[in-house]
Amino acid sequence: MSNTPSTMLELGTQAPEFRLFDTVNNQLVSLEDFDNAKGLLVVFICNHCPFVQHILDEFVITARDLQQKGIGVVAISSNDVENYPDDSPVKMAALAREKQFSFPYLYDGTQEVAKAYRAACTPDFFLFDENDKLVYRGQFDDSRPGNDEAVSGQDIREAADLLFDEEVKEEQKPSMGCNIKWKSGNEPDYFG
């Protein structure tokens, strides 16, 4: 289990485009599908990461709560499935069904979307406002596998509440998790 932090993409960054297949229904999902949302939370996760497993149940609840407020949610896995078969699209779909994801779980097989977002770890959270400008990037909350902090989603929930106040909290803590499992030779310049 590695401790890789978020790259902390610059606030105000325009949301990078994506057009990926949802592993559950095989439908293409793109950034434009969320044009009418009051914001969009993009999270990079995977099936096998202990950091993701630690927060997953609370993340599913938090995602539903955000969606009820009109905020879109999308999860993306960019891991190398040849070396990490638990993160394959078939197993992603199985996990999404088991945990009853209310949001698309997309597979980024080329890893280009992860690079566009400068995603570094799983989980890695990016919250954009209704104009697709980055207002939050960082951790779900202070909980980590092995510490005594309760899993609450507090940081994401607070950031989402600020969307409606049009205020950006400047102090944000990076997420921490397993590094994205890059395909050999496909590692971005910010990796390592």
UniProtKB/TrEMBL annotation:
SUPFAM superfamilies: Thioredoxin-like (SSF52833)
Single annotated GO MF: oxidoreductase activity
Thioredoxin domain location: 9-165
Superkingdom of source: Bacteria
Gene3D superfamilies on file: Glutaredoxin
InterPro entries: AhpC/TSA, PRX-like1, Thioredoxin-like_sf, Thioredoxin_domain
Any matching Pfam family: AhpC-TSA
Name under which the protein is recorded: Peroxiredoxin
Gene source species: Fodinibius sediminis
Organismal lineage: Bacteria, Pseudomonadati, Balneolota, Balneolia, Balneolales
